[in-house]
Amino acid sequence: MSPDRERRRLWRDARIATRIVLERAGGVGLRNIDFAIAAGGRPGLGPGDPYFNVSHSGDVALVAVSKEMPMGVDLEKKRTLTMSDDRRRRIIAAAERLAPQPPLSADSAGDVLIAWVRLEAAAKARGTGIGQLLTEHGVIGGKREDGAQGSARTLEIRNLAVPDDYVAAVAAARLPEKIAVHSFPTDNLLEFIAGASS
Fold it and tell me: Residue of 58, 63, 103, 177 with fewest CB within 10 Å of its CB?
């Protein structure tokens, strides 16, 4: 936990929102189940659904829930990046190996962040953590491992439509054709909770 009071509040709020969204997706029986953290750091509720993943950046959190399979999400606030050109190129190359979506440029901080959220989402979906994925793809350590495509290559990775100040991605073995991103209705929380049965 951060010593920064505002960061602690945002962390707590993200966890409360996660609990509300999970209960809406899986019913009130999930209310008293503790989160379990797997070896790679992925949170869960034990065996079975709903699967979920959370990311937060700035003052926003992204909560994803699936009744079908584990997935990973990542969210980053757009910002100026202070990293070497080589590091930017490695991040872009790794992300494009995993998700050859529209080409990205290492000269654009926005594109590097898009590449980063794809990598983070893939690592979370795999349940291995970002360090292992970055090492496999030569982003850290300098040399890509043979067979670096690994299980991450079998994932579908897609950018998400989020507010303009942010970039986000989701990864899973299989993604639905359409993925809706909804804003958490802090102004009408009781109606949102009541919608759990719908």
Answer: 177
